[in-house]
Specification:
It is built from 2 helices and no strands. With 70 residues, it is mainly alpha-helical. The protein has a domain of 29 residues. It is elongated, with a radius of gyration of 24 Å. It holds the Pfam family COX7a.
Length: 70
Amino acid sequence: MAGIPKLETPQRAGQRDALGNSNRTDRQTQGPRAKYMLYPYYALMITTTAATQYMMIRMVLGHKTWFGSN
């Protein structure tokens, strides 16, 4: 059977490609309501990360409150 070309089968859910990547994240970002669920999540993640970094920098500088010099 050396003359028969190998047919590529489509990737199914849960399977991994040759590099070990799965298509799970692609399925989560597709769909009609994906942006309504993901954009608030991204906004909340960015906001909490920024607030945490802001307070860590203030603590390093010696300020223990969100605003002011104390």
